[in-house]
Every structure is written in structure tokens, then in C-alpha cells.
Amino acid sequence: MEGENWKGLFLGFVLLFITNLTAHSKELYVCPSCSFKTIKEALRVAKAGDTIRVKGGTYAEGTLVVNKSLSLVGEDYPLLDGRGKYEVLRITADNVVVEGFRIANSGRSDIEDIAGIKVENVKGCVIRKNILKDNFWAIYLAGVEECRVEGNRIEGPFRVGEAYSGNGIHIWHSKRILLRGNYITGHRDGIYFEFVEDSTIEGNVSENNWRYGLHFMFSHRDTYRDNIFRRNGVGVAVMYTKKVIMKGNRFEFNWGGASYGLLLKAIDDSIVENNIFYKNTAGVLMDECQRITIKENDFVENGWALRIWANSMNNVIKLNNFLSNTFDVSTNSTQNPNLIKENYWSAYRGYDLNGDGYGDVPYRPVKLFSYIVENNPAASVLIKSFFVKILNLVEDTFPVVTSISISDRKPLMEAVRWKR
Amino acid sequence: MRYLILLLIPLLILSCEKVVSPEPIEYGKDSCSFCRMIIADAGFSAELKTKKGKVYKFDSIECLAAFILSGKVKREEISALWVSDFYSRELVSVERVKFLVSEKIRSPMGLNISAYADEEKLKEAVRNFGGKVLNWEDVLSYVGEKWKERIGKGSF
């Protein structure tokens, strides 16, 4: 009974609080025939808690600075045009909402990171359902906490080379950020995280960016899941980070000499699970990684499914499906201190006579030839040659030829059906 | 005819003694010899050439410093070091520049080191962005201190 009373009292307070807020917040309209003709004017008059509603049309007002906690809402996608000169929108107050704008043509600079939307040193912000086009940097968050960037469509200028395009969503020194459902293309790095902690990247599509789809550095305890990274110049690079969860993503069509689906460079204590690596030069490239679990992923039709350098230690690779890759695993050393077991290998030719679901002889996923290529990249021209066919045949018949220690002692006879 | 060939020999020898110059960096293609990142920003890149002529390229000045500190190439084997001038975006010998560490100038690997060949431009950068001016030896000890763990691992 007493509990009920408390609940009622609490509800009363909440209601009081809400009515109090609404009583003071106003709506300000901006359009040629509205009481405010320019957004600048409305921003000057508005108070914290207000909503500025901007009607469709083009607004080129230089840099708009939002220094009060208010909502800026576009109706029919009004265009904020930077005319190739200005940072378009700069947010310097906590709890600002920006929604429903087209933001285009920010300035460019060798010295400054000019952005379509820049948010600096604030707590709480929502950047939602905007369309950003041809900006130098598109959305740029620096020193912020608890911001949400959702449902934005970001198209860069598609020009390859430095000084033409910055990153699509660039986040630096921030905490507890959520990126969800954004589409990013035509920038340098689609999504870039540097010193960003306890954050989530979810359900985004990042494709045709000229360097990385996702670039991730010094960003601990983050999760990225259910994203698609496709046809980016190099792939996805996750570097110098501890405790990352990478789950349910697709890494696909990253072809090119030095390309890969996912580069893991100096990553510790992380999880790669339920991802699909499809048609990449290398699915996963691991350099100097420790204690990573790679579990229940599909590696399909890659040049190399997994390149794991011997400076990577104590990683576990299990219950993955390796399907029709040119090379399943390669490494640069005969010794490799990582555990590979209970995977399904479409190239496995062994039998399961005792019917326990595992092949009776180990599978050796590192071909002698792939080891040669790893140490002499130029040798890859021999890949379809008669010499290599003979080499593989000899190796299959007399496994002793291969001195490389990696083998899956319990290869699965059937593909893993992990939950999709 | 024979004399002509004899004349050519000294020329041939002389032509070997050419000035050491940096190999151009292909932005968006070349990757850093220390951190593997694709080099994208001409304001911060760097290069090392050994006496045997092997070239190492870097996306940032901190990666060049870390590479040297890690000892992959011995110091006596180094023929030349270049870093990008922050304003001209050209590779310049480390002996001809001063460095600035400034929070406001964000370098690709996060230690925020930039280089300046022109004293006036350096002053301008200090005025605009603040920070601390260093020479090359200072840069080496700064990176050595900040990245102690990473360099110790010998990350290649």
C-alpha cells in the first residue's frame, strides 16, 4: 500500500515537471512568410527548451551556431547551404536536437576540419534523419558524451585523394555514443572512432568510401553490430583497442592488392561473432592480437579467409564456416600460438567413420603455397599454375611436407548453423 | 670510339652519387610501415630511407619516431628522414624543421605532432593553436614516453 502511494507521488512530480517544461517552451517558425525569416534570427531569440521549426527552402546563412539547448527541426527537408565556404552547423550547447535538414557544401581546408554538423564539448545531442551531401567532414563530434546519431544519409564528394574529403561520421574523444541506421558513402573513412569509449555502432551501411568503411582507434569497450561494410577502398580497420565486440556485420567486396574485410591490429580481449566475410582479398587479417574469440562466422569466397600473423597469440577460432576460399588460413611463421578447432572447411576431404560429427583426420588449413606467398607476395602469380597443383596434391597425400603447425584437429563434417 | 667509352665511365660513377631525395607518397594507397594505416593526410606524413635505399613511409610523425625507437632499422643504417611540413604539405628533412605538439592539431595517430620548415609559419601555428615547440630529439623522447608499451611490443 505504501509502495502505491510513493508511486503516485512520483508520478505527480513527473507530471508537474513535464507540464512545467511545456508551459515555458515555445515553437518558433522560420520561412519567407513566417515571423522569422532567417534561422539566425530565430536562434538569437529562442530560449533553452524551445523548438525552431524551419520550413522547406534554401537557407545560406554562413555558419549557424546553436549555443542553447533547443530543437532545430526541418519540415520538408530545408537545405542549409555552406556555399563551399562555411562550417554549416556548429553545436556548442547540451541536449540539442537537429532533425530533418539537408546540409550541403561545407567549406574545405587543409588546416581545419570543417564539417556539415560539428558538435563540440557537450553532453547529450541527437542528430537524426538528416541528409548530408558534399561536405568536407559530414558529422563531426569532439569531446561529447551521450549523443545519438541516427538515420542520417551521408554522401561525400567521392573524390579520392587527400584534402578532398574528410570522414563521414567522425568521432573523437567521446563517450557513450550511439550510431544507428546511418548510410555513409563517398567519404575518406565512412565512420571514424578515435578515443571513443563505451559506444555502439549499429545497423549502419558504409560503402564506397575511399579508405575505410569503419576506422577504429584507441576506442575501448565498444560494440559494433549488424552493420554492412561494402566496397570500401581498404575495408574496416580496428586498431589499438581492447574489448571490442564485433557481431552480426557483413564485410564484403573489398578487393584490391592490400584490401581486407577486417584488419585487427593490436586488438586484445575482443569478440568477432556471427559476421559474414564475403568476397574480400582477405576476410580477416590479424596482426599483433591477443585473446580474441572468432566464433560462428561465415568466410565465403575470399582470397584468404584468415591471415593470422604469428605475432598474434592465444586467439581462439572455432565453429566458423570456411566456404570456397582460395586460401583458408595463412600465416608468416611455421609456429602459430593460436587455437583453431571445430570449424567447418568446405575443402576438407576426410571421413567420419565413427560418426561423431568430426572428421577423423585433422584438417590443415594452411597450404604450403599460401605460406610461401605470405613471405614472398610476388609468388601469388603462380596461384593457378601446374606447379602449385602438384604441390597441393603432394601436400594432401603426404602431410609431412607441411611443417606449419596450424591444424584443426576436430574439423566439422557439416556447416555450423549459427543463429542469424 | 673506345676513348668515348672511357670518357663515359667517370660520368657513370658520378651519376651514382646523387642527392638523397624522398620517394613521393601515394596518398590513399601507401600504408604506414609502423601502424599499417593507409596514409591519407599530407599534413602529417613522414618517410625514412636507409643507406641501402629501402624506403619506409609513415602516416604520422609519431609513427616514424616509434619505428626508429623500436629498432627495426638501426640508427647507423638510416640515410635520411623526412616529415611533411604542415602548411606546404611537402616532405622536408627533419633537420630543417621544428615540431609543435598541440591539442588543436589532430594528427592521424593521436599524439598531435606537426612539423614546420618556416619559423614564421611555426609562430603563426603557435599563435592560432597553442602548444609546445620541440626539436627532433624531443619528439623521439616524447613518443618514447607516450608509447612506451607499444614500442616495447615491437609491433610489426
Distance between the termini of chain A: 46 Å
Q: Would you identify the regions of chain A where 5 or more consecutive residues have pLDDT less than 50? A: none
Which strand order do you get reading across the main beta sheet of chain A?
1-2-5-8-11-14-17-20-23-26-29-32-35-38
**Percentage of β-strand residues of chain A:** 35-45%
CATH topology of the largest domain in chain A: Pectate Lyase C-like
The separation of the N and C termini of chain B measures: 54 Å
| Number of strand segments of chain A | 39
Helices and strands of chain B, in order, run as HEEHEEEEHEHH
Number of domains of chain A: 2
Using only C-alpha atoms, the radius of gyration of chain A works out to 26 Å
Rg calc of chain B: 18 Å
Task: Give an overview in words.
The complex is a heterodimer of chains A (420) and B (156). Chain A is mainly beta. Chain A contains four helices and 39 strands. Chain A has two domains: 64-233, Single-stranded right-handed beta-helix, Pectin lyase-like (Pectate Lyase C-like, 3 Solenoid); 254-420, no CATH class. In chain A, the strands form three sheets. Chain A has a 14-stranded parallel beta sheet, covered by helices on one side. In chain A, strands 3-6-9-12-15-18-21-24-27-30-33-36-39 form a 13-stranded parallel beta sheet, with no helix packed on it. In chain A, α2 (39-45) links the parallel β1 and β2 (51-54). Chain B has helices at 2-16, 61-70, 119-129, 136-146, 148-152, and strands at 46-50, 55-58, 78-84, 91-93, 98-101, 113-116, 132-134. In chain B, strands 2-1-3-4 form a four-stranded antiparallel beta sheet. In chain B, α2 crosses α4 (136-146). The longest helix of chain B has 15 residues, at 2-16. Chain B is globular. The interface between A and B is medium-sized, with 28 and 21 residues.
